[in-house]
Amino acid sequence: MASSTLRIGVLAGEVSGDILGAHLLAALKSRYDTVIVEGIGGPLMAEHGLQSLYPMDRLSVIGLIEPLKRLPELLRIRRGVFQHFLANPPDIFLGIDSPDFNLTLERKLREAGITTAHLVSPSVWAWRSGRIHKIKRAVDLMLTLFPFETEIYRQHEVPVEFVGHPLADEIPLRVETQEARAALAYYPAGPCLALMPGSRAGEVRMLAPLFLQSAQLLRREIPDLSFIMPAANEARYAELEQLLEAYPDLPVTLVAGRSREAMAAADAVLLASGTATLEAMLLKRPMVVSYRMAALSWAIISRIATTKWVGLPNILAGRELVPELLQSKARADLVCAALLPLLTDGSERDSTLTQFDLIHPQLALGYGERSAQAISRLVADKAR
Could you tell me where the DSSP H helices lie in the chain? Predict the structure, then answer.
């Protein structure tokens, strides 16, 4: 056992960070007699003893305008957290994601002599690579969820460790379609396609009509094809329900939440970019990624992006493993053409699934224990 007591400061500003933090704290509690946890997090970390200094939901802001409107409060919270840990130094402070909030806090704490680490790499490998210099000043260790993220840190001599992804530990190597359908009480007569146009209102507005138009074209080619569409929340459910009124002949089953079960129940998935692409890959469901955004936003992002792909399976594979139809290529005819070979057994589908099988174990490293080992090692090294 590394030590009898560990005092750790943590800060997670989103639900996803609370999940990551809870896995880590559970593993740390098996390595130390006592783990004292303070900072900001959600109910999952609270179950492992986190004493929150502020409610996590005060940090959960998205977009460009909302953070600006809330800036005085956010700065006050960050200042309060800094002053607390300055007066009560932990053995280590860990920022979990939320880089715009955490990196400045980590830098100030590190300058004050407190050991710092950051979990979940900012997308410096995709855009705004200049942030690596700020990260180097802010952290003693970066913990990444994906192997491709480590190279830029090594190039800039930032200590880094790849710890794997908890979803890869959580999702088994084989997920049976029929079991997922039974769990949803969903029994399509023929093949099934999951439609996942995103969780935000803007995404649904831009993508849901495209996905449903693509579904119509697919039905002409595969008459017994049916569709399952998970809604991220009540607001998205109501929007999608209203939208489906324009497609009365399209057999779409709308479900509340349960996106993972919906993907597992499907033979293939049409989805927006994001973590859902990772889940679909781990579930071994072939997919097509399609995304649209406002023209100005696309013009800006496409100029600053340094990666060729947006889907995590492609980034992990280092090549276009799954089709990506973005912006001007996000058209129903192209989406239909890309999905057809994935909805029938054939060489393209089999090749994709073989690659998914190879990638999954590379991410399933025991995220919680591996992260706890890295944190414990850093604390021990700094204590010498």
Answer: 15-29, 43-46, 65-69, 71-87, 99-111, 131-138, 150-155, 166-170, 177-184, 201-221, 234-244, 259-265, 275-282, 295-304, 312-317, 332-339, 347-363, 367-383
